[in-house]
Amino acid sequence: MRMKRIAHDLRKNRTMYVMMLPAFVFFLVFSYFPMAGMIVAFKSYTYTDGIFGSPWAGFENFEFFFQSGKAWLVTKNTIVYNVVFMIVNNVLEITIAVILFELAGKVFKKILQSVIFLPYFISWVVAGAIVYNFLNYEFGSINTLLKSLGFPPVNFYNTPGLWPYILVFFSAWKAVGYGTVIYLASIAGIDTEMYEAAKIDGANVLQRIFYITLPSIVPTMIVLLLLKVSQIARGDFGLFYQLIGNNGLLYDKTDIIDTFSFRSLLDMQEFGMAAAVGLYQSVLCFLIILMTNEAVKRVNKESSLF
Amino acid sequence: MKPVKLLMVLSLALVMFAAGCSNNAEKENAPPASSADTGKSTNTSSEAGKPDISEEVKLKMYLVGEQPKDIGLIYDEINKMLKRDINATVEPIFLSWGDYLQKYPLLFATGEEFDLVFSANWVKYGEQALKGAYLELTPELLNTYAPLTMKEMPPEAWEQAKVKGKIYMAPASTKDFSMAVVGVRGDLREKHNIPPLKTIDDFEKYLDAIAKNEPNLVPFDEGIGAYTLYDFIVGTEFTPKYVIGNSHVTVDLKDASGKLVDIAQTPQYLEFAKKMADWSKKGYWSQNAMLNKTPIPESFLAGKSASMAGNIQSMSLNVTAANQQHPEWKVELFDLYNGKATYVNPYIGNGMSINANSKHPERALMLLDLLRNNEAYFNLTTYGIKGKHYELTSDNKVKALGGTDSGYRVDAGSPWGWRTQGLIKPLADEPDEVAAIKEAWTKSAITNPLLNFVLDTSNIKNELAAIKNVKDQYMLPITLGIVNDPVEAVNTLNAKFKEAGLDKLKVEAQRQIDEYLKNVKK
């Protein structure tokens, strides 16, 4: 009986299932199969025995992370930075998207959009070099400017307190263009009749923004937010590693789980320990996304992911 | 709802299936891993005559370094001879400097089939061996397939290559030093009336003169790789052989008792920290040295800085390069050890191993024997093609041809793994100072059984990882003098080391050293 129903469903929605197949296979191969390898986090790995044959190590691989005394600091840094990036970037993205939408000049609009989008294509390696040339103590452009104006130069790379701002700035510089496009697309999908009706009723620009545009893109906002939250315990390795590098003076303010474990394990070559940190991040992400989804569900059932 | 459930069940089944598959694959792979046995069995059958080479084989060899332009020409020649000698061909594959640390362990983890591989203490020889990366080289194997190597190798080199009593590497047999020398611009030294350098204080005078009088030059362009000043100032006092990586815990090779010294807690280290803070404030290097990834010699050769330092092998090449490009600089090398105790590097700083998964370990060993002991093979891989890449002078020195444009410069094909004392030749354009300094160091070199000691890290990995992080955050700023208060910085460093569990490591290391010394005396 049940088999029949499934067979019927498969036949009826055949096209849909075929279209879904590539994505299904992709996740199966690249996300579900490798999950079995996760057990290496609990193994004392040797080449000859492989992932499944190596002896069990219990929670030994997790010890270094908590023994370092930095586990709490880097976890906090990772999550706080991601939350700040999320808020700042989203506010900027929505603001810019709304302004671009309201702008009249088509050419100017396109140019502006391209300029904002451009940094998205610059790799962090290159960006790191650009930042270095801005901030260098002896020949950096900011310090050259300060000196020529008669101010004392600032040693950015020795001043941890400045880096939260610098990092937030560059994260926005790189990410905002991409987010803006998504919000623009979402705004473009709003029914224009609503705006026409509002205009006839005498609504001004601000009223149109606050009563039509913003409420209409709330679902998009929530989906993007949830997607970001699902990555909240994973830092942007490129950003932090390329801008900070091996500069230990800044670590207390700028070290995240990813850079910390990368540095600690790079010359240890212990797959088990690296997997342990990855698993820790995954579990953390999983818990946070569950909580966020639950919260969203309470407020607005339609917008939750599952 | 139903189809979703079906999909989940299906995917779960597939995951389990895949897991089962790879499990089987691992098991199938296991036997060749312990192929010391297979080696032995073929060995007994062929003991009567020569090894059986009737079947032609293709060997793969992994090396660390950048692939030079003319590598194809070199190995075409090699393969011609190899085909004739042992009915085999070899293909070298290079792991580049940029990512060899990540890729090296993956070679073994993926179970890839290859035969020979470069190994060294600085690519974690001991740890890789314990993880089962390499084939054990038993005396039977070596005697049968690499008899010349057995004859040529100094016994202490085999001793050093032992991991838990088993040999997994044929080390290079050259005697190298890792002590540093400084190179300065002779023209500037004379211009500012600095006498030839003998001590670190003389060097300071030179740096000071540059800092005050040559505004366009950085006196000493330190970066994240900084270690030489530490060597000159602290290393000369302790003759250290570091026991615990990423810390300053060492044994003093002058002290036969093998008692551990934590240099970071000594007054000498405090003096060093103060001096570096002073030098950094005086502008001997950039305030942003923590971000400078350019090696010092590169900055020096580009004309940006006034001095360089590094180990004598690389400094020798750098001075040669400088003399070619800027003879007016009159670059000079100085030895700041000046009679203080030195030591010869462990042999396992370079070597070759056989992959545990190799299908042809016998032939791989035979190839290694040829590379190490046959002059034709050795010269080709080390110096290139005669007449095209190098020329021998009348006194049997090597003169490299083609300068920096050469398609195969000396050592370009990463042949250090099979470098042998008997076949290596001096370079014709080597600076005169080099031979003199090496001779002086050979005289002042001390021996100590602890030079061969290797720490077994299997039970202390967590502490080691924690310590690595302390080093990055608190040690480098001291080395580069980028601290406001050096005394406080040193105290913080030691406190953080303690938190990370260094004390436990010291106890463990001391226990291993004592045990090691007991066995040596027996």
TrEMBL record, chain A:
Compartments in which it is found: Cell membrane
Chief subcellular location: membrane
Keywords (A to Z) from UniProt: Cell membrane, Membrane, Transmembrane, Transmembrane helix, Transport
Membrane spanning stretches: 21-42, 79-103, 115-135, 162-188, 209-227, 271-291
Gene3D superfamilies assigned: MetI-like
One GO CC term, this protein: plasma membrane
Annotated PROSITE patterns: ABC_TM1 (PS50928)
GO biological process: transmembrane transport
Pfam families linked to this entry: BPD_transp_1
Domain ABC transmembrane type-1 stretches: 75-292
Membrane topology: Multi-pass membrane protein
InterPro entries linked: ABC_transporter_permease, MetI-like, MetI-like_sf
Domain of life according to the entry: Bacteria
Family: Belongs to the binding-protein-dependent transport system permease family.
Protein's name in the database: Putative aldouronate transport system permease protein
Automatic annotation (TrEMBL), chain B:
Segments traversing the membrane: none
Residue span of region Disordered: 26-50
PROSITE patterns: PROKAR_LIPOPROTEIN
Domain DUF3502 residues, every copy: 449-518
The keyword Chloroplast appears for this protein: no
Keyword Signal: yes
Signal sequence segment: 1-18
Keywords: Signal
Name of this chain's protein: Putative aldouronate transport system substrate-binding protein
Organism of origin: Paenibacillus methanolicus
